[in-house]
Amino acid sequence: NAGVTQTPKFRVLKTGQSMTLLCAQDMNHEYMYWYRQDPGMGLRLIHYSVGEGTTAKGEVPDGYNVSRLKKQNFLLGLESAAPSQTSVYFCASSYISSQETQYFGPGTRLLVL
Amino acid sequence: QKEVEQDPGPLSVPEGAIVSLNCTYSNSAFQYFMWYRQYSRKGPELLMYTYSSGNKEDGRFTAQVDKSSKYISLFIRDSQPSDSATYLCAMSGSNDYKLSFGAGTTVTVRA
User: Fold this and answer.
1) Is A43 on the interface with B (CB under 8 A)?
2) pLDDT tens digits for A10-61?
3) Contact A33 B98 (CB under 8 A)
4) For residues B3-25, average pLDDT
5) Rounded to whole angstroms, how far apart are CA atoms B60 and A27?
6) How far apart are alpha carbons B21 and B6 in whole angstroms?
7) Which site from A2, A41, A65, B106 is most exposed, i.e. has the minimal number of CB atoms within 10 Å?
8) CA distances from A86 to A14, A61, A91, A109, B45 (A)
């Protein structure tokens, strides 16, 4: 039981490049979330999903897209990276509601030059 | 003004001291209150979860919620170097799709 895993762990991008961050969970959770964490800002929700095939915008969705084609996977895409997207990205999942315990992955550190 | 305010610290205490962490919030609809612990370069993990006003104790940890003052606290008794981490408060209303997080307080317990 691996919990929540994230790929890659670290990436350096040039401005304008694109990339996809992959999140996988093996706990059969319905809800999945993508957050970014910046110094002094706490965790801010980018996008979330309440089930396979669904996605919705969070607090800071601009510049990101997501897909949830399979229940266990949640992908975060950056179509044209900007230096403002330099951050640590965390994926999380919870069983059936946002009020339940969220289980976090180890994070992806992204540096956009 | 942020929905959830948390002093980022940092906080440095000697081993064995009591650590006191606090968050205030502005949204009276919040009903679920959590504390997450995050070690350096790791993801957050749930430490305490409370629903109602009052105290909840789990070993060396006590979570306190005062809904009338919109104030929550986490106390760590007999602090250990292994408690050195960032502590994030989080909260949610019953109809919310998300958690609202504080900025996190970084705690160092000196041996």
Assistant:
1) yes
2) 999 999 999 999 999 999 999 999 999 998 888 999 999 999 999 999 999 9
3) yes
4) 94
5) 29
6) 8
7) A2
8) 11, 14, 16, 8, 23
